[in-house]
Amino acid sequence: MREWELKYGCNPNQKPARIFMEGEQELPIQVLAGRPGYINLLDALNGWQLVKELKKASGLPAAASFKHVSPAGAAVGIPLDETLAKIYWVEDMGQLSPLASAYARARGADRMSSFGDFISLSDVCDVDTAKLIKREVSDGVIAPGYEPEALEILKSKKNGNYCVIQMDEAYEPDPIERKQVFGVTFEQGRNDLKIHPEMFDQIVTDNKEIPEAAKVDLAISLITLKYTQSNSVCYVKGGQAIGIGAGQQSRVHCTRLAGQKADNWFLRQAPQVLELPFLDGIRRADRDNAIDVYIGEEYEDVLADGAWQKIFKVKPPVFDRKEKRAWLNGMCDVALGSDAFFPFGDNIERAYKSGVKYIAQPGGSVRDDHVIQACNKYGIAMAFTGIRLFHH
After folding, report:
1. Is 231 labeled as catalytic in the residue annotation?
2. Which among 56, 68, 158, 353 is annotated as catalytic?
3. What pTM, to 2 d.p., does this model score?
4. Residue ranges per domain, the chain?
5. HEC letters along the chain
6. Which member of 55, 67, 157, 261 is catalytic?
7. Residues 154-177: pLDDT tens digits?
8. Domain with residues 190-267+329-384, CATH architecture
9. Known catalytic residue at 253
10. How do residues 42-87 score in pLDDT, each as one tens digit?
11. Known catalytic residue: 40?
12. 67 is a catalytic site residue
């Protein structure tokens, strides 16, 4: 198959729409179920590149949760502890396979953003992963293959309309890529830069210690940023992105946005949140929304109008700002990557509040000395990679 006709482009008024290969080459994908759209396929092809690189860098199965051509989450297949299994709503599924663990992490880091995602898997989709996907709201999945039972599970989703795509694992694109904007053709070399631990050897701070596990997390952050709309910043801990700030014009806004998401991820693990008395039968999406409100600043207003009665068995106590700050002070050893240099030390000040201890960024700002001083103030180890990772 060299061409696939689409219902429409980014929006229903954008017709006709298709994907196709020039010359005699076949498309590297097979659509096994459903009818993926224009944005679905952008997410699928970007996500596939991301998980393929994550697996190569870590040696572990990888998964990504994509929304509107940026990852909401990305992770490798490290087993979940009891707390993470609970906050990702998979504690009833028993011991998950490595691939299913990777997707649980990718989906769970920012569940609100991942609602209605497109999933990318580095390995053949197994039954555990298919069962997990079946219970979540998503648009589709791309993987290099599917176990027969897993494929049947996925085909039954959305009354047979769920998008299931198989990727040719051996496919390699041309080294030159092109796209059109307003009738003008842009051409550039494909960004085939490989992220590797040696990139973090140029440590410019007083703290020179970046352990191997932190280097893996830094590699995950940079690989994630390769496929995130710029400007972008990514916080990583324990083999998974916990906060991604994408598409902001100001870098400090990226750092704040990603930091807020990382904070929310950690706050979900606080006893006050783990013990919330949800009504029986509340859907996962409604629980996610309720938790987001509960850890937000406006929760006292929600308590006042009685809306809690629709979600909780009894009125939960307020999780006040002082308690939240005390819990967040326990977050540590977070790795942070940036797709371009930090122009001001305010980014470091914000990152420190979310437990960042290791940073990888290109360097090259006229204010590098100020940024280094900010890192030294907090004992943060920062490596200059010399590599920018803009993605548009």
Report:
1. yes
2. 68
3. 0.96
4. 3-172, 190-267+329-384, 276-318
5. CCEEEECCCCCCCCCCEEEECCCCCCCCEEEEECCCCHHHHHHHHHHHHHHHHHHHHHCCCEEEEEECCEEEEEEECCCCCHHHHHHCCCHHHCCCCHHHHHHHHHHHCCHHHHCCEEEEECCCECHHHHHHHHCCCEEEEEECCECHHHHHHHHCHHHHCCEEEEECCCCCCCCEEEEEECCEEEEEECCCCCCCHHHHCCECCCCCCCCHHHHHHHHHHHHHHHCCCCCEEEEEECCEEEEEEECCCCHHHHHHHHHHHHHHHHHCCCHHHHCCCECCCCCHHHHHHHHHHHCCCCHHHHHHCCHHHHCECCCCCCCCHHHHHHHHCCCCCEEEEECCCCCCCHHHHHHHHCCEEEEEECCCCCCHHHHHHHHHHHCCEEEECCCCCCCC
6. 67
7. 999 999 999 999 999 999 999 999
8. 3-Layer(aba) Sandwich (3.40)
9. no
10. 999 999 999 999 999 999 999 999 999 999 999 999 999 999 999 9
11. no
12. yes
